Amino acid sequence: MTSQTIPVEPFDCIVFGGSGDLAERKLIPALYQRQRAGQFSDPTRIIGASRSEMSVEDYKTFARNAIHEHVKKDEIDEEQIEQFLQRISYVAIDAKSDQGWPELKKLIKNKPADIRAFYLAVSPSLFGDIAKQLKSNDLITDQTRIVVEKPIGRDLASAQILNDTIGSVFREDQIFRIDHYLGKETVQNLMALRFANALYEPLWNSAHIDHVQITVAESVGLEGRAGYYDTAGALRDMVQNHMLQLLCLVAMEPPASLEADAVHDEKVKVLRSLVPITADNVQENTVRGQYRAGASAGGPVKSYLDDLENNTSNTETFVALKAEIGNWRWANVPFYLRTGKRLAERVSEIVVTFKPIPHSIFESSAGHITANQLVIRLQPDEGVKQWIMIKDPGPGGMRLRQIPLDMSFAASFDERNPDAYERLIMDVVRGNQTLFMRRDEVEAAWRWVDPILEGWESNEQKVQGYTSGTWGPSGSIALIERDGRTWHDSL
Ligand code: BG6
């Protein structure tokens, strides 16, 4: 099966932080892939903007290298790269002064495309300066959008300030807050699974579901981002955004349509229904971990503290927690979340465990009847497995066995799996905000996360060490086993 590429209208995409890490690893490769797919109409342009003094030719070399470095070999098409590079310009610009702004203005205005997307791949401390410059240089039209990357704040108060700053210059329907997890193929498939099938929805509640697990495990460590990471930690870096977004998609009521506000409204309701974890119960409901030396990603690795060259950090590189949603649908159905760096494998998945059958008609010799599980694998090996019980084939009498109904996407479709950024950038151009976060969503997520952070601080909750290459600290296992459950074995 193959899908069709529908071209988008011509646009100018101005990437602030254009020579930075995100542009190099994700944005330029994603835009190149859309060029290769034939999705651009002329005159689409990509304009890099950053403080580095470089010529347009230098920037084209940077972009060419980024493509060669971060796109798979069999997806490199030199002719397409050349056509892509013809779309590229560059301006050296300083967000904090007037330097470069007249050049940017001239560049944009000399060949205006209707749609303009300013992509802020920069530190949030620059969001305000850039927004003000865009306004005072008269660069914002009705068809202009602004794209902002996380972290949107480090708590509710700072998120509100950032949102106010951007909101003073842009309308909410022009602001695209990226959570790249929402652009992942299988995350969207979760919506298809729930709302394009009659099968699951009647069972999707506390009468039939025992609990839900969401795991986002990484084998990598800090990847050169120690400065940022040590001030954030896993709760801010992964839970406040990606993991709560996944939780929302599992738990939300069916929206009336896929229209952005309809989906955002339902997600906000879930976030507001999360039962607070506060200083009183934070120790029993959360576990903080920090990796020690060990073996991960194919070789020996140092501890977090050695990676950081700092012996005192109490920042968590792992967090596990038990969340509860206080509404009719999910009462008494725990959602166990865990995420961490330097774990045994890179695997992200959502596991929905159904309740056990109410009565068994089988002799004990038939074996154990395992509760049904729906496993939605986000990465790698994207797909969905519905585990069911069957009779073991053969004449050996009634013996039961668990097998998966296996919907492995990689095996079912001929196409490459596009990176989340490809879809999300095209949605920015189309003006479709469904897969982005609305202001109240980001703030509702912080409203739930803040008391956890405060509880950790007031309880002086220390990180528990775990050996790199394992599944995290023993406290994480205890967190779920205390409830008579176990983490799904992802291997
Ligand atoms: C980012 C986090 O948002 O997501 C990183 O800041 C993390 O720390 C990354 O590594 C994980 O994304 P993915 O797509 O590789 O699962």
From TrEMBL:
Domain Glucose-6-phosphate dehydrogenase C-terminal stretches: 191-488
GO BP field: glucose metabolic process; pentose-phosphate shunt, oxidative branch
GO MF, any single term: NADP binding
EC number(s) reported in the record: 1.1.1.49
SUPFAM superfamilies hit by this protein: Glyceraldehyde-3-phosphate dehydrogenase-like, C-terminal domain, NAD(P)-binding Rossmann-fold domains
Family: Belongs to the glucose-6-phosphate dehydrogenase family.
Protein name: Glucose-6-phosphate 1-dehydrogenase
Source organism of this protein record: Pseudochrobactrum asaccharolyticum
Highest classification ranks of the organism: Bacteria, Pseudomonadati, Pseudomonadota, Alphaproteobacteria, Hyphomicrobiales
Gene from which the chain derives: zwf
